[in-house]
Specification:
alpha+beta, 200 residues, five-stranded mixed beta sheet, two-stranded antiparallel ribbon, 36% helix, 24% strand, 7 helices
Length: 200
């Protein structure tokens, strides 16, 4: 990550590892003991993976489209895209599934690209509402389809492992644009496809 506009470019790997040592000491342990010696390196490596979304432009995944689709203009839906993200308030994991649909306007995109868009935004510090809107906005702006629908169902470890300690709770968010917002039948069809009733 060498981009000077990226805050990570101003922090060295050594500084990141020292920050982990500081947190280990603050938690009450000794970062120099055998079991923790390599922890700072492991954490820095994990962060590079967990937050790799800052180094990509998710819209880039959608710029290669296919126009020879024999006039297909019905709904395209990708269900159950598993993702891991992290809450920007507590840095705790958010684990969930995204369901993405769009109505093509003369061009379609490879379905794996939709999953990459989800990952590109999920691998950043997030709140679920923002993540949902970012995915929908990216697809809408780049593909310019007749409509976009995104539903995310996720559990938040900041709620299950701290604070109220409520397990088995998931949060559902949705963003409907274009025909999915304007046409109740189109929206209902999408929700049937992804097995979520009209209450969401």
């Amino acid at each position: 990550m060498s981009d000077s506009s990226n805050p990570a470019a101003t922090v060295t790997r050594e500084q990141a590892e020292e920050a982990v040592r500081t947190l280990l000491r603050w938690a009450g342990d000794d970062p120099s003991r055998e079991g923790l010696l390599d922890t700072p390196k492991r954490v820095a490596k994990a962060y590079a993976d967990w937050f790799s979304g800052y180094a990509v432009d998710p819209g880039e995944y959608l710029r290669r489209t296919f126009e020879e689709v024999e006039g297909y203009d019905e709904m395209v839906v990708l269900r159950g895209i598993e993702f891991e993200s992290h809450c920007e308030h507590h840095m705790a994991p958010i684990i969930g599934r995204a369901h993405v649909g769009y109505l093509p306007n003369n061009k379609v995109v490879g379905i794996s690209k939709l999953a990459r868009v989800v990952d590109g935004f999920a691998r950043r510090f997030q709140v679920q509402e923002k993540l949902t809107a970012q995915i929908a906005g990216c697809i809408n702006d780049t593909l310019q389809p007749r409509g976009v629908a995104v539903v995310i169902d996720a559990s938040h470890e900041c709620m299950t492992t701290r604070g109220v300690h409520k397990r088995g709770v998931s949060m559902v968010t949705s963003q409907m644009l274009g025909a999915f917002r304007d046409d109740a039948r189109t929206r209902a069809e999408f929700l049937r496809f992804i097995d979520i009733d009209g209450r969401h």
